Amino acid sequence: MNERLVVVDDEPHNMDILRIFLKSLHYTVYEAVCGSEALEMIDQVAPDLILLDVMMPDISGFEVCRQLNERPDFDIPIIFLSAKVQKEDVLRGLHVGAHDYLTKPFDLDLLEKKVALALQYRKKLVSLRKDNIRLESMAFKDGLTGLFNRFYLSNVMRKHEEGLIRFQTVMMLDIDRFKEINDVYGHLYGDTVLESVARIISAATDPRTDIVIRYGGDEFLVLFSESGERSGTVAESIRTAISALSFEPEVKSMFSITVSIGLFQVTKEQPLEILLSRADYALFKAKHSGRNQISNE
To answer: Mind listing the UniProt keywords for this protein, alphabetically (predicted)?
Structure first.
């Protein structure tokens, strides 16, 4: 075992017993003798479990527990070890967010079992949180290309509306004659084309400043948060790299693909829907001017 336990007790005799016993079970033990020291140590150590006395010289254990459980995403189980044995004390401890409550003098066998159960609970909680993060990430990603999807775009639009993020350039990209590729070579090759285009866009953009979204079908969207002419350079590098791609199906002749790109440089604060429509109009001009080109709006 390598679980980290923070033990908080101002009685040296109690601390000695807990230290020796818990270390014999191969837990890593960190000690605090008052509430303020406990709060500082918990921030530093990020333990898997807290064993907390109630009566301490500065902040009571009840108050320490209450403060910790008011923190967003706090999920460390707390077991009270207290000489306060009245029913009201036990209920108060559970009310402020404790996982369990043991009264002193405590039975070491019972303590061992309670600690093991609390740590099992902690492991399940951490695993569930990781699963939730993974599922949330999957909900925002396009299954074929791995890019962000329209659902994520809705989230971005909300943040833009709230003023949390701003964009300097919006780029719309569309694969030229993509329907013909699907009709002639099949949807599996169509998917291969989409994946290849997505890889090129991802390689040309910077995830720290750019957001790349599969807008729908064979359309892609890039939102640039940086100003300047970088977006035009990125757009040209994407167009050039895609036009150099070639595919050779088993029963058809080799084919290549091109893309049309529309760019809109943001000049004032506007709803993101307006920015998207302006970039979409620029893309429309690129399409109707011969394809395989970049148009600015």
So the answer is: Phosphoprotein
282 is written with which tokens? 């620029």
Provide the pairing of β-strand 4-8 with 49-52.
parallel
The radius of gyration of the chain's CA atoms, rounded to the nearest angstrom, is 30
pTM above 0.85, yes or no: no
* Residue range 241-267, pLDDT digits in tens: 999 988 877 656 677 899 999 999 988
Residue among 174, 210, 218, 280 flagged as catalytic: 218
List, in order of start, the domains of the chain with CATH numbers. 4-136 (3.40.50.2300), 150-296 (3.30.70.270)
Query: Can you tell me the distance from the alpha carbon of 114 to that of 280, in angstroms, rounded to the nearest whole number?
Result: 61
Check: CB of residue 84 under 8 Å from CB of residue 62: no
d(CA 102, CA 120): 18
The helix (H) or strand (E) run that includes residue 287 is helix 272-287
Residue 117: CB partners within 8 Å, gap ≥ 6? 100
Q: What is the pLDDT of residues 175-202, one digit of tens each?
A: 999 999 898 888 888 999 999 999 999 9
On average, the pLDDT of the chain sits at 91
Q: Is 16 a catalytic residue?
A: no
Q: What's the residue count for the chain?
A: 297
DSSP H helical segments within the chain, as ranges? 12-24, 35-45, 61-69, 87-95, 108-139, 150-161, 178-185, 187-204, 230-243, 272-287
In DSSP terms, 103 is beta-bridged to: 82
